[in-house]
Amino acid sequence: MTERSVRWGILATGGIAAAFTADLVDLPDAEVVAVASRSQDSADAFAERFGIPRAYGDWNALAEDGDIDVVYVATPHSAHRVAAGLCLEAGRNVLCEKAFTLNAREAEELVALAKARGSFLMEAMWMYCNPLVRRLKALVDDGVIGEVRHVQADFGLAGPFPPAHRLRDPAQGGGALLDLGVYPVSFAQLLLGEPSDVTARSMLSAEGVDLQTGALLSWDSGALASLHCAIVGGTATAASVTGSGGRIDIPHGFFFPDRFVLHRDGRDPEEFTADPADGPRNSLRHEAAEVMRALRAGESESPLVPLDGTLAVMRTLDAIRDRVGVRYPGEAPEEDRAPELTPA
Fold first, then answer.
1. Are 37 and 99 a contacting pair, CB within 8 Å?
2. pLDDT tens digit string along 115-128?
3. Per the omega criterion (within 30 degrees of 0), is the bond before 280 cis?
């Protein structure tokens, strides 16, 4: 693999799969060799659109394709456990969309399976691979704003989404939290690790999913995070990180920013902007490049998106759902209780 292109398989043919594949085919060291859908017609159409040589009408065929180095799982998160599990069982490496799974138990099962098979596994948290987000984290880690005291982040879509939409469907893990709230939670935990306590409130739909959720996370250090997600109102998608000696503001699109502003006590504001050479702000190629780098290095997980961090985010999402009373079909009774949080 060190001397040739990395061969990708794409599992699912929806919008995010198309966006990822479009970015992937522009990478000179990536090759998309197969796609799978539950519908042969859908797989054929996707393959024709992107010039992919093999199209499968079932997931198992893709998982068993030994000519694939890594599979990108782009199904709704309600199917991630099954889809990623099939690929890992077959010995494939996997990049799996977020939210990683429906709950922490399913996430733990996938991680255990990857370790048992010796396969690479990574959550497709593209925000963590974004060069400007990585720069922000480096500044925070270097103590540029002092000790982190507070993180704020929001992500809301205006809607309205009809009851039949996947975002309103409990069977597909619907609601704002797993689809959008995973970003604010992941942003806070990128900077502070796993919280020691979670408080949350939601507005629920008639179907029992969260239409909007506000969460307050706290850490033993005294740090707090105020987070919000919604599918009933468009928000600024802004974020800020306040420390004992300054603040960093992302005025819009915190998970794929074009700029952020550093405010330090006694100094003029300093603006950091995205490098045009890194490509479009909404490019998914950075996470693809990180997967390929890790595979060539023989790593079983990415240091940018470590599996322990993914599991910690899933535990927090479980805790939030427990506080607001959202439970998905098929979840066991014990998953209706908040998991034990393990502060970093």
1. no
2. 999 999 999 999 99
3. no
d(CA 340, CA 321): 14
Q: How far apart are the first and last CA of the chain?
A: 35
Q: Among 37, 98, 118, 128, which Cα is nearest to 311's?
A: 98
Amino acid at 87: C
Task: Give backbone dihedrals phi and psi of 170, rounded to 5 degrees, phi first.
Answer: -60, -35
| DSSP 3-state of 13 | coil
- DSSP string covering 61-81: HHHT-TT-SEEEE-S-GGGHH
pTM as predicted: 0.94
* Whole-number Å distance between alpha carbons of 53 and 337: 46
Residue 335 to residue 328: CA distance in whole angstroms? 10
Task: Decide: 228 and 157 in contact? Cβ < 8 Å.
Answer: no
Which amino acid makes up residue 261?
V
Tokens (6 digits) for 53: 């040589």
Burial of 206 (0-12, 13-18, 19+ CB in 10 A): exposed
Q: Helix, strand, or coil here: 248?
A: strand
pLDDT tens for 184-224 read 999 999 999 999 999 999 999 999 999 999 999 999 999 99
Distance separating alpha carbons of residues 27 and 19, to the nearest angstrom: 13
Instruction: Give the amino acid at 113.
Output: L
- pLDDT tens-digit series, residues 35-79: 999 999 999 999 999 999 999 999 999 999 999 999 999 999 999
Pull the structure tokens for residue 302. Answer: 């990415």
Spatial CB neighbours of 144, under 8 Å, sequence gap ≥ 6: 243, 245, 246, 262, 264
Q: Which residues pair with 238 in a beta bridge?
A: none
